[in-house]
Amino acid sequence: MLRTCLLLLAIVGLAGAPAFGATLNPPPGRFEIVIDPHVRADTFLLDTQTGKIWRLVKYDDLPGKPVVWRFMDRIDNLPQALRWDKAHSGRERAAPLPTGTP
Question: Which residues, including other chains, have CB under 8 Å from residue 96's CB and lie 6 or more apart?
Answer without folding.
Answer: 87
